[in-house]
Design brief:
Blueprint (H helix, E strand, L loop, with lengths): L4 H37 L2 H20 L5 H16 L2
Length: about 90
C-alpha cells in the first residue's frame, strides 16, 4: 500500500498509462485483422486505407513506448508484406 501522496499519484498515473498501452495494442490487432480480411477479399482501396491507419497507430504506439521500436518495425514490415500480396 502506498504511504505517501506521491506514491498514490504514481499508482494512478501508471494505471492510466497501462490502459492507454492496452488500447494501442488492441487497436493494432484489430487493424491487422481488418487488413488480412481486405487482402483476402482483394479489396485494394480498403486495404490501403487500413494499412495507412495501422502504420500510423504503430508509429504512435512506438513513440509512446507502448511497444518496442523493433516490434514496431517488424509489424510495419508485416503490413508491407500483406500489401504486396495484392
Amino acid at each position: 500500500m502506498a504511504n505517501t501522496k506521491q506514491q498514490r499519484k504514481r499508482i494512478r498515473t501508471a494505471e492510466r498509462q497501462h490502459l492507454e498501452n492496452l488500447r494501442y495494442k488492441s487497436s493494432i490487432k484489430t487493424y491487422f485483422r481488418r487488413l488480412k480480411d481486405s487482402v483476402a477479399a482483394g479489396d485494394t482501396d480498403n486495404a490501403a486505407q487500413t494499412a495507412k491507419k495501422l502504420t500510423s497507430t504503430i508509429d504512435k504506439a512506438a513513440a509512446k513506448n507502448a511497444i518496442h521500436d523493433n516490434n514496431a518495425a517488424r509489424k510495419k514490415s508485416r503490413v508491407a508484406r500483406l500489401l504486396n500480396q495484392l
